[in-house]
């Protein structure tokens, strides 16, 4: 029986990237739907679960994507509510690659050792990658500080992380790169999760931190988020610190994404969100770096 993946994309055009990775991950056919809203989910899910008997439903799965993680989360909630009894299929949420990227960055930072009780700073954590990485690190026992450009954004971020991950973090406003050195004082692990082409952390802000053990940056477009590291860095030592650039992180992200697609077809009741994607990462061979 052929493996079928229903792609529910909240954007106007379904992601070609996600389609390619899905094929490489083991899907035989991909049924792509664009502009998906919560109101349109029920009929699409019914089409996926009522065409095969329960013993064959592991050959059908759902992938939720698009550029907006908040929209993807709403779609996931409706998908799960539509399932009943044995009539369900496995589903993965990875809007804009945020879950797999966040997990890959967390795994890379763990190359510096156990994160429990380590002071971690996640800059620009109001974005979906930063928020999810911060939540996963806090769940793992790290002492996490998140940054936002504005005080009100920082306060809301604390509330959002508590609601989504059940964790407590500290938040500070970091309006621009000139404040980075003060924010990083005493930092042991740093993740820069800002947007493309925005430098958040100058070299002198992190290179002079005596306790810093690892730095990761998910921005691949110059100027990079952290000055002094390269996009291809994958455990390179810079200024005595392990450095991971966006492409170094991205290699493991791609491996993880494909592995998650393959997992969807092993059973019909798997839900892959941030935490369960981190579990999948733990089953893979240790990443280089």
Automatic annotation (TrEMBL):
Residues 16-96 form the Methylene-tetrahydromethanopterin dehydrogenase N-terminal domain. Pfam families: Mpt_N. InterPro entries: Aminoacid_DH-like_N_sf, Methyl-teptahyd_DH_N, Methyl-teptahyd_DH_N_sf, NAD(P)-bd_dom_sf. This is NADP-linked methylene tetrahydromethanopterin dehydrogenase. It comes from uncultured bacterium BAC10-10.
């Amino acid at each position: 029986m052929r493996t079928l993946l229903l792609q529910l994309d909240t954007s106007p055009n379904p992601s070609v990237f996600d389609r390619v990775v899905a094929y490489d991950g083991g899907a035989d056919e991909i049924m792509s739907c664009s502009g998906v809203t919560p109101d349109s989910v029920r009929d699409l899910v019914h089409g996926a679960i009522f065409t095969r008997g329960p013993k064959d439903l592991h050959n059908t799965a759902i992938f939720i994507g698009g550029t907006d993680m908040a929209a993807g989360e709403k779609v996931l909630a409706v998908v799960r509510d539509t399932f009943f009894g044995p009539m369900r299929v496995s589903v993965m949420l990875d809007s804009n690659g945020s879950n797999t990227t966040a997990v890959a960055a967390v795994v890379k930072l763990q190359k510096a050792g156990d994160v429990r009780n380590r002071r971690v700073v996640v800059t620009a954590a109001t974005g979906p990658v930063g928020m999810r990485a911060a939540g996963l690190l806090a769940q793992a026992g790290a002492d996490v500080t998140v940054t936002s450009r504005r005080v009100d954004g920082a306060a809301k971020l604390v509330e959002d992380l508590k609601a989504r991950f059940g964790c407590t973090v500290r938040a500070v406003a970091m309006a621009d790169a000139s404040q980075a050195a003060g924010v990083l004082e005493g930092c042991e692990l740093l993740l820069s999760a800002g947007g493309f082409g925005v430098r958040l952390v100058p070299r002198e802000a992190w290179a002079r931190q005596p306790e810093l053990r690892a730095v990761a940056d998910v921005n691949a477009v110059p100027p990079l988020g952290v000055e002094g590291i390269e996009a291809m860095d994958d455990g390179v030592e810079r200024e005595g610190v392990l450095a991971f650039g966006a492409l170094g992180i991205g290699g493991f992200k791609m491996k993880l994404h494909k592995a998650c697609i393959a997992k969807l077809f092993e059973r019909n009741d798997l839900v892959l969100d941030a935490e369960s994607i981190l579990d999948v990462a733990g089953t893979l061979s240790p990443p280089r770096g």
